Amino acid sequence: MIVKVIEVIASSEKGIEDAVQNAVTEISKTVRNVDSVYVKDIKAHVKDGKITTYGVICNVSFRVDA
Fold this sequence. Notes:
The protein contains one helix and three strands. By secondary structure, the chain is α+β, with helices and mostly antiparallel strands.
């Protein structure tokens, strides 16, 4: 079995968990056999003293068909 890892960036106005789900949802549109997501980094954008969006950088692992 071969597993490939790609890095993706996703965001959400709702929260970190939603940002991770957005990453999985979007990558699943073009990549099959997604196995896991490793959240490499988390950030939040701030405007006028309030968080406006949450961002995540994720490593997504998926099995490559032989």
